[in-house]
Amino acid sequence: MLQILAFPQIKPISVSYGLGIIDHDSEGRLLTVEFDKFYLICGYIPNSGDGLKRLDYRINEWDASLSKHVKCLVGLREIEACHSYW
Fold it and tell me: Which domain holds residue 59?
């Protein structure tokens, strides 16, 4: 299982793990940290794998779920994102 973590110098309001979808969250790929003025979204984005065997999952499931998650936060605070694409 992959893990994401953050070491903020200021105390966050809240921290949430994953997207609330078992298929995505079992891989430990997303962390959303809420601060007074912004959200920090840290992600380890899944790649397509050898022979592009996970491309359909990546585009149709992961990307769509992440987009929905971000859209729920838009307008509440600024959003900062850090991620890794492999």
Answer: 14-85
What is the residue type of 28? G
Residue 8 lies in a domain: no
Show pLDDT as tens, one digit a residue, over the chain (86 residues).
Answer: 555 666 678 899 999 999 999 888 888 889 999 999 999 999 988 888 889 999 999 999 999 999 999 999 999 999 999 887 65
User: Count of domains in the chain?
Assistant: 1
Q: Name the residue among 19, 35, 45 with its Cα closest to residue 80.
A: 35
The tokens of 46 are what? 């899944």
The number of beta carbons lying within 10 Å of the beta carbon of residue 82 is 11
Q: Which helix H or strand E contains 65, and what residues bound it? A: helix 63-73
